Amino acid sequence: MPHIPDAEIITIGDELLYGQVIDTNSAFMGQELGKLGIRVRQITSVSDRADEIVQALDAARTRAQVVLITGGLGPTKDDLTKNILTEYFHTELVLNEASLRDVESIFARFNRPMMEVNRQQAYLPASCTPVRNVVGTAPGMWFEDQGVVFVSMPGVPFEMKRMMTDTVLPRLKRHFQTPPIEHIVVQTVGLGESFLAEKIAAWEDALPANMRLAYLPYLGGVRLRLTGSDDGQPDLRGRMEARMPELRALLGDFIFAEGEVPLEAAVGQLLTERGLTLGTAESCTGGYVAHKLTSVAGSSRYFLGSIISYHNDIKVKELGVSTESLAAHGAVSEEVVRQMAEGARQRLGVDVAIATSGIAGPDGGSEEKPVGTFWLAYADEHQTVARKITFNRGRQLNIEYATTSVLNLLRQSLPQR
Amino acid sequence: MPHIPDAEIITIGDELLYGQVIDTNSAFMGQELGKLGIRVRQITSVSDRADEIVQALDAARTRAQVVLITGGLGPTKDDLTKNILTEYFHTELVLNEASLRDVESIFARFNRPMMEVNRQQAYLPASCTPVRNVVGTAPGMWFEDQGVVFVSMPGVPFEMKRMMTDTVLPRLKRHFQTPPIEHIVVQTVGLGESFLAEKIAAWEDALPANMRLAYLPYLGGVRLRLTGSDDGQPDLRGRMEARMPELRALLGDFIFAEGEVPLEAAVGQLLTERGLTLGTAESCTGGYVAHKLTSVAGSSRYFLGSIISYHNDIKVKELGVSTESLAAHGAVSEEVVRQMAEGARQRLGVDVAIATSGIAGPDGGSEEKPVGTFWLAYADEHQTVARKITFNRGRQLNIEYATTSVLNLLRQSLPQR
User: What InterPro entries does UniProt report for this protein, alphabetically (chains A, B) (predicted)?
Assistant: First the structure.
């Protein structure tokens, strides 16, 4: 009989509590558990201290049947998790030959000498089932204790991810055969959370009890996630889908994609469909637009290149911006950003170019053009479009917001097929 | 009498448990509390459900005297924190005139109509002291209850940060006058955690009981943080500093900075000191090197621009790479990456240029040049240096690792003053 367990995640490490490291592992684990229909009840980050780790384990097992633990498995002296678990489960460390071979092969592959601290990593609690680590030196450990599954994994994200995907998730799936929950994600850009909420309030109010809508704001837009849970009736997915046309009609062009598709990938999809090539000319965004575009695998099919003209000389020499325009209007101006987009189109030999010129801050602002003033432009063979935005929440966020905005300008300006 | 409280952080939102959003707030709060000498005992992420939030509050107050809460204060229906806290502290919602004026001024500033849901945000629990939000519509709330301070803040990072800095931290400081803990951070690059640990094992073993060393690995290197806690003896900082020369001698050129200085800022500092300008020519990194460099405020003093030559035509046309070299060796080769760096130096008119050409994946690899093969180059007026690295942990990490590596190549190759 299928049984839906609750899960908890415990991440271990002083560095998390001191804020020296951001916990990205929990998000990955939460996403993957969700796909199996396993709900994460709580995420707990604790220090490297034994008593606090034990308290967290004791608390988690009262609420959940799966406890995933990351961190504290490294070879160094502040990594105590393995010893704590050995004591917690009243067992002892024994050499695991298979794990030793894995550790040895890691060192052989990188052609580096193996240290004694690494050999120690192949000693594992006798009562656990080892979880192979094929990309690092710390094996994972799977324990079952009084009906609760505990899995300890390294805190290094790519090691944990590989271990989850290869071993832990398939094994959890066998253990707990659960009905899935369903998610439908709609990506919007250009509308704040409150405005969105007001627009779709009636639609949201009409949702049945087993469907919930979550607003997931990001810089420049909101992802909407409709989650449906099993109510014993057939075709949960179909009943969720049936509610979508009304939502789509309410939001119109603010929707740029459905599913987990970032804006840069949605734009890439449009360019591919229309057979167009793209380049960028960037001043204030300093390469971030190109980076976002090239973060999409396969982007070389439509993205050809960029000219990052941080200095005005490069705007003139490499993009053909006129020195008169720079002198008359300054680099952050409609005239200059238009010339940048048009110049990039010519110089890079692309069908479509986008350009940014603005003041990311914290310095460089003036009364007329304060920090957070950005000019964006789009150019194709038929038209050049410029747009001014103002946004000031600190240098990094300003760069990100300008990037999202120029990608949205591109999306809205591309010629129809 | 000074009293050192422990703190806990509770972050609220289904999106955290589903992994749709990464919790970056806790790291910021942990860092800032640490500077006040307040230790974070636990970070707990819970869902939007009232009973689970109440359980987390009940548990946190048994362990800590400060409980910072973020999330669930938005204007939408899944944001329940304010109502839950109102009930938890047996109080009622009343209109707060000052908060209403703040909300109104936010809408006035952005020249947008205010919605009824936003007006509701100015209703606050009668027993709390409001915490002003000058950059968003949800006020924070400060409660004191049976010796424990609870502060509820929005989950939007820049709103929370502003509120912490302007109001919450100064107020906590007045409340709990605590002796500081001291941190010394040493930034290293190019050496893995195990090798580093082995190199400094004797030094680490000799640390007194009130000093602890933490290894904080990042992609391409490790940050070391020495933390000293008050032991009743004078000059804690001085006694920590006295241990540093030996560590510095052990690690030598692997250390690129001390303090919270990222590699791109350390490189910028070197360029500034030596009066040199920089440009980049990027293929596989697609603008990420330029982005990292320009993420540093004031980088326009030394960074002039880049040519992102994703397509080979742009390598030829804009960087002067020879078509013969491309045909004979391919784009990912020592010959081509050297020409890219030299070409960028010429075309961008910079003193120093760095270049990348590699296969970020997931496609494009071959037997001879598998995914994760990267050629990096550095060029100045006296020399061109090329380096090959191999690293394959997925597209994004490959791009990041290549970026760190080429910045390190730059650091190591720059002419001495």
Answer: CinA, CinA-like_C, CinA_C, CinA_KH, Competence-induced_CinA, MoaB/Mog-like_dom_sf, MoaB/Mog_dom
B41–A21: do the CB atoms touch at under 8 Å? no
Residue with tokens 């992802």: A223
CA distance A121 to chain B (A): 11
Per-residue pLDDT at B1 exceeds 60: no
CATH label of the domain that carries residue B326 = 3.90.950.20
Q: A191 to chain B: which residues are within 8 Å by CB?
A: none
Give me the amino acid identity at B249: A
Is B310 an interface residue toward A (CB < 8 Å)?
Answer: yes
pLDDT, one tens digit per residue, over A132-172 is: 998 888 999 999 999 999 999 999 898 999 999 999 999 99
What DSSP designation does B243 have?
T
Q: What is the pLDDT of residue B335?
A: 98
Average pLDDT taken over every residue of chain B: 93
Query: Across residues B61-66, what is the average pLDDT?
Result: 96
Same-domain pairing of A252 and A304: no
Q: Looking at residue B176, what is its pLDDT? A: 87
Residue A138 DSSP SS3: coil
Q: CB-CB: which of A22, A32, A311 is closest to B305? A: A311
Identify the segments of chain A with pLDDT beneath 70: 1-3, 76-78, 180, 417
Mutate to test the interface with A, among B194, B223, B313 (most CBs of A within 10 A): B194
Domain membership flag for residue B1: no
Quote the pLDDT of residue A325: 98
How many domains does chain B fold into? Answer: 3
Asked if residue B342 and residue B195 are part of one domain, the reply reads: no
Q: Which of A24, A214, A305 sits opposite B78 (nearest CB)?
A: A214
Residue A16 and residue A121 in one domain: yes
Residues from chain B contacting residue A39 (CB–CB below 8 Å): 17
The CATH number covering residue B30 comes to 3.40.980.10
> What CATH number is attached to the domain comprising B219?
3.30.70.2860
Q: What CA–CA distance (Å, rounded) separates A200 from B78? A: 14
CA distances from B382 to B305, B352, B415 (A): 21, 10, 9
Across the range B112-129, mean pLDDT stands at 88
User: Are residues A253 and A268 located together in one domain of the fold?
Assistant: no
In angstroms, the CA B28 to CA B22 distance is 13
Alpha-carbon gap: B260 to the closest alpha carbon of chain A (Å)? 10
Of B175, B195, B211, which residue sits at a domain end?
Answer: B175
Q: Which domain holds residue A398?
A: 263-413
